[in-house]
Amino acid sequence: MRSVPGRALRRARPLLLAPLLLLAASVPSPTAPRFTITLPSDLPSPVDGRLLLLISTDTSAEPRFQISDGPGTQLVFGMDIENARPGQSIRFEGDVVGYPFRSLADLPDGRYRVQALLNRYRTYRRADGHVVKLPPDMGEGQQWASKPGNRYSTPRWLEVRAGMAPASITLDQEIPAIAPPADTKWVKHVRLRSERLSAFWGTDVYLGAHVLLPAGFEEHPNARYPLVIDHGHFPADFTFVTEPPDTTVPCVYSERFRLDCYNRITLREEYQFFKDWTAADFPRVLLVQIQHPTPYYDDSYAVNSENNGPYGDAIQYELIPYLEKTFRGLGEGWARFTYGGSTGGWEAMAVQVFYPEQYNGAWIACPDPIDFRAYTVVNIYEDRNAYWLDSRWKQTPRPAARDWLGHVSYTIQENNLREAALGSRGRSGDQWDIWQAVYSPAGEDGYPQPIWDKLTGTIDRRVSEHWQQNYDLSYILRRDWATLGPKLVGKLNIYVGDMDTYYLNNAVYLVEDFLERTTNPYYAGEVKYGDRAEHCWNGDPTRPNAISRLRYAQMFIPRIPERVRKNSPAGADTASWRY
In CATH, which of 1.20.1600.10, 3.40.50.300, 3.60.20.10, 3.40.50.1820 is domain 187-371+473-567? Predict the structure, then answer.
């Protein structure tokens, strides 16, 4: 099922269509620069993947690390290769998808650093009957520029000009494997084969977890503990610093927070966490970070979906029981809690809503859109186009990101065109594509049905209806509160800055309106806003965002004993872990 291109622009004057006409499939230009990229001869046959050509004028890093949404981005052009031969030469010409230039023909003559990279795909034969080709996670958290096994070329300077003879590029480098983290006294690492996910994907799929043990774990062998899930993006390892930081390390300025020596601040807060975690009055709990990358993103959003598979059930009914059994968890819903920010904020709310009796509280910071009437700045149920404000006579682009003063750094269209260059069929491994992979039904080809046309922005209402019924958390609360509400009393706590970088506060306003004005029984949680705070404010009005974002555990874990007191059943173990 596909969107109908241009539906939102049917009444616009021809002159105003010019920006979108640039997005139409281009015809190879005889004067466009051309490149020939040779695949390594030692690759297994056939070769499938996304072949990227990266072009840069910035010498601060390799071009593969310089593709971004902001004004500092360099150039990328991408094309699918399928059933190619090892050693085959692939021609790059003007018809390949590019960002921010749509075509190689738009590239001015000049001297550039040029690099190529192959993001390799593997074939999955899923239990739903679909056969799809996707990039597997290789322990890096679904990052194409650093994925082990991907091949790339050594960057080199080239004189690029219109009509040039094809420049030859060889993929002469391979990204090495990543060594797994080692266990310590405090942090243990788990890798568990999921029966549910392996059955869905037709191959072995593993879930990972980093478990931070409470102080006194070894000294109290009979203690059993509450479990706290810290949801977020792919965690390489748990950062737990047990020694005072080196105060002489060279300072690194944070452009985001406009703070000098932010690296020293981070090190200081990491050590402070160790001191707080081991303090006599800090609750003794198991703190867990989960690794659950999919072929579409660095994590699954912790829910079941047609395209990712049953990640929600796999985490809830396979991984969590295993962790509780292995590390002496209490193993009951009243003794499980969750928190997170951004992606993790959405996940914390989603698992509390979808598994309401399996958790006793969620602290939800700067969540990804929890009401799709405010899918950032798009209402997917009423707006016709995601990229442009609905208008008869003009086209005003919808913004995607701003700073705390409202200055816009890129648009939704630009964001999506970058993803289109990095991967077709929702395979960019980035934000809009993972939302689509999680929320959309699978298409006839096995890939996620687009919520909107990637080139024109035209919204598909049939897909948005599926999103609403299955993943719009606000809609689900409104629809099901009579039965769901009694299980959620006191469990939903939401925090966001009123100048969130990605406009995520817009959806929170809509959810707050329902929770505060309509719920019966009353939801009995809290919704708070940070004044002029950008992404990802998490509810602490006493510290700047740059500091509070490093203190999630200290902010939320101390609230657990009171939640246990209120909701634990008679005879429950509420004492063995309180030493």
Answer: 3.40.50.1820
